[in-house]
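Let us practice reading a record.
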Amino acid sequence: MSRVGKQSIKLPQGLEINVNEDNFVEVKGPKGELSFGFDKNMTININEDEISVTRPNDSLRNRALHGTTRALLNNMVIGVSEGYLKALEIKGVGYRAQLKGSNTLVLNVGYSNPVEMEVPEGITVEVPKNTEVHVKGANKQQVGEFAANIRKVRLPEPYLGKGIRYKDEYVRRKEGKTAA
């Protein structure tokens, strides 16, 4: 048995889960709603307060899908109940971020023109300080991808440490040139 796949998922209060005969799962909660179509070989069982995933046999493909299905279901349940957050910080003299309207993030990070990024639907972006950006949403994959795209605008460099990095990211610093 898969170590991840055999664990059951505890359901918090206030969630509504529907599973079709084609293993299409819809999860609704206070933070939004998510849906995903899983492989038809996996069996998704819903009890009163937990979900479990079982596989039909021990073939290599089914063993691989067992843990993946359970992990994706768990991410959906956590996303619609609590939500996901990625915090980024901007380091550098004159580097800053701001929101233009409700769906455009403007980054001034050392280029001749500011970089404008459209915020995808289902994601909210907050700028509590000029040097911090918080990306929030119910879908873990979308939140992580948009945060990575923001970071990609100006990667942290190892000599001065300038750039956009995750809040808890460690950037290894290098020593510069030395005079002879």
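A brief commentary: The longest helix spans residues 60-81.
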